[in-house]
Amino acid sequence: MTEKTPKLRPALEGVPTYKPGKPAATGGPVAYKLSSNENPYPPLPGVLEKAVEAAGSLNRYPDLASAALLAELADRFSVPLSHLATGTGSVGVAQQLVQATSGPGDEVIYAWRSFEAYPIITQVSGATPVQVPLTGDDVHDLEAMLAAITERTRLIFVCNPNNPTGTVVHRAELESFLDRVPADVLVVLDEAYIEFVRDADVPDGLDLYRDRPNVCVLRTFSKAYGLAGLRIGFAVAHEPVAAALRKTAVPFGVSHIAQEAAVASLRSEDALRERVDALVAERARVAQGLAGQGWTVPGSQANFVWLRLGERTLDFAGVCERAGVIVRPFPGEGVRVTIGEREANDLFLEAAETFRKEL
Ligand SMILES: Cc1ncc(COP(=O)(O)O)c(C=O)c1O
């Protein structure tokens, strides 16, 4: 008798499993985790207290509509309530957007390399990924992305700043791109790292979405706000898209603790600004340190830097690990290093120097 196994959708064949950043070892010498673009700071003032209080009602389902949070977001970003939707991290919302727009036979365009979840969520939906290589400067090639649009295109991700390169697209080129994308193709501006942007020519997606019904902005509480472990992000989009997000949401996916922590975080704006400014200053220090050692690193507007190391990628990651910092290697391509606490950044700079001297 042949062993029968449950029939799975063929679309899942070849779907890569999401690889989380390697954790820092425990119990051994000091190791810092600079592999997941996390925030090194603890929750913002007042957030932990709210989260603990919220944990007192774990026996209850959370508010399905995230009403208190949406009211806070609507007020803060001056957007209608009906344009907002929350999800289990912005990756959860991104998956809902793909599910809402794209199935077998449809195409999803994104730059490559970019956020590694894009190919996964596209293929899980049964849609076809269309990867458009970054330019030689590691920036989105918006003209090539336009040229890749076909009748089958349903969704385009623009990751700004881009993970893992930290590079950005500017207002004029993004507007010109959006003006030429067909109105029935959804453009998702993934702004997971927007709070770290200091380049004044990088647009705020919320300004671009307002008079463009095919533009959706994705934001997260995981990075600048430091709530990665609570899994909460949100989208801002015009009504048909926002309504589709409510249909594709896992019921009660966003916990009460996450909703309360997000509200408290939004109310801790001064402390947020201080921390983000400190990380941005560290980013400048790291970039300067690397340049001083002779590295050519693309200017990053996010909380990480990208070193294009090609075949030396894994060797470099090994040198960093032995120095006490866990970085994120993409074999054959490069290494992404999160800006962490000062000591971690120092260890990374030392490792980078050691590696260069051994070259
Ligand atoms: C570009 C980008 N978008 C979205 C996310 C997802 O973040 P989260 O699901 O924690 O909101 C990440 C996380 O690394 C990211 O780099």
Automatic annotation (TrEMBL):
The keyword Transferase applies. Its EC number is 2.6.1.57. It comes from the Bacteria. The modification N6-(pyridoxal phosphate)lysine is found at residue 223. It is an enzyme of class 2 (transferase). Residues 33-350 form the Aminotransferase class I/classII large domain. The keyword Aminoacyl-tRNA synthetase does not apply. Keywords: Aminotransferase, Pyridoxal phosphate, Transferase. It holds the Pfam family Aminotran_1_2. Residues 1-22 are annotated as: Disordered. It catalyses: an aromatic L-alpha-amino acid + 2-oxoglutarate = an aromatic oxo-acid + L-glutamate. HAMAP family: HisC_aminotrans_2 (MF_01023), Phe_aminotrans_2 (MF_01513). Homodimer. Belongs to the class-II pyridoxal-phosphate-dependent aminotransferase family. Aminotransferase that catalyzes the conversion of aromatic amino acids and 2-oxoglutarate into corresponding aromatic oxo acids and L-glutamate. This is Aromatic amino acid aminotransferase. The lineage of its organism: Bacteria, Bacillati, Actinomycetota, Actinomycetes, Kitasatosporales.
